[in-house]
Amino acid sequence: MIGNRITYRTADGVRTPGTWRHAFIRNGSYFLTDLFVYADGLIDCWGLVTIEEFEGKLRSGWVATTLPDGAEASAHDLAYWKFSEPRSWLTPELLVAELRDTIDQLNGRPDSTGRCLAAVDTFLTDRTEENRATARLAFLAIPASQRRYALGDMDSKDWPLRVLVAGPGGQTYLPIDPPVTQEAYDRALAYFEERAHWRAERQAHVSADGPATPHAPAVHLYHSYPNKPVPDPGQLGLRNDYPAPITVGKVDYPSVAHAYWALSVAQPEVGVAVATADTAAAAREIATGAPRRESWEQARTAVMTSLLRAKYDQHPELAEILLPTDDATVIYDDVDSAFWGDNAGRGRNWTGRLLELVRSELHMRRTTISGL
Question: What is the pTM of this model?
């Protein structure tokens, strides 16, 4: 199960989501490490392999699910020990089944649990023995380690499921369970009826503050060097180095980038040279060769916010380019800064975030929200 363990692998500028889980790798001795599992089906077990190749790693013992008594092991150079009467609940088949489920989850596809619950719904709608048998097979296809979590109910665990798919007089997959009585079966049916009611209420629930994710497609502002204004700049006009003059205080700057770099330097005379540089690239080059203002790094996001507000207040035509991006995520590339740019997922994208903030403020004004 993924939970909050999300990571990414970047290749050719594309981020592939993934997650990880603990495992032992045997390379001479045993190493407690992490297996990284990615949405494209690749698994990093000290080298990227497909799921089929991973099964070969299990057969060879490179990825270990059994641990011999007296074997030496270590964990990321944090500890070293020898096994004494080790017990492992994991088998190669169980591990592969769990990883296949993880790949489905990373892709937003129904995993074995999702397929089982769909089969159960089919049975509850049409209670034939054929549909029950299909639901039972789907239930048993869930890795044994995950069955107790299938209903998301840690009070009942998988009891209603294993009783329902066994049927009256049937035997569950657990040898310790007695044959299913009619009373137990009726209780399981009642559980699923109540569960259906609860699910319907949850699906009808409307979030108090709207969707958590954007509905508009992301906007990608690629790095560029716009040196001259054009009649219809499109999203190029959203770049900080686009030549849209702004006035800050009593000083005029050729662009947001000019203003940002001029305000960053400690020496006033250098600031003048930056502000009058021919291009934004030249302004940056002058500024980066000069000392910064004290505590500039702590103040720079607030400075940039003020400059972006000035730009879109003083250039309504550019605000009309920003506003139609609606609630889209703004991905801003900046090859010179991993702080301001997204840069294929390796940067912090602060310019993109602040453009989204200023856009939201422009929308607020249009809705005439008072009192703020």
Answer: 0.64
